[in-house]
Amino acid sequence: MSGKILASAIIAVALIFGAVVYYFQVFHFYEAVEDDAGQVFLTPLSGEAPEHLVYSEFEGIDADSSPIRYRACFETPARPQELDEVYERYEGAVPRNAPFWFDCFDAEAVGLLVETGEAHVYAAQRNIEYGIDRVVAIAEDGRGWIWEEINDCGDKAYDGTPLGEDCPPRD
Description:
It contains four helices and eight strands. The chain is of the alpha+beta class. The protein has two domains: 1-30; 33-159, no CATH class. InterPro entries: DUF6446. Keywords: Kinase, Membrane, Transferase, Transmembrane, Transmembrane helix.
């Protein structure tokens, strides 16, 4: 009989631990990003400092527990065709999943829009943190999404590969 009690206790502790870890990963670490009318910006083709984009309906979340947890959604009157002439495109960006409760950011749907060319991805800011670029995707209908990508230098830095001469020095 004591074996059943011990096994039940182990299972109960494992379930409680799993529930706590799930809660922390999906809910606890995230905080709302305040919209201070400066969250959405794009890097010009000229290489100058990022410029703010006109937008509305901003919703954003972030967490200190990871450099790539930033997600945001917004609407803008700007369209990809006009932005292509002025701002730097970002190739190879793939939206990362957001928590299920952050309804406006559906990574699969955004990824499909990018893949089909209905949304274009732009560099917002390179190396916002070492090895991490913030990117902005804007669809034909004016919906926009922001997330962070690990760039080539970040890939090398995080897997231990020598950085090479094309990467900026680490702080």
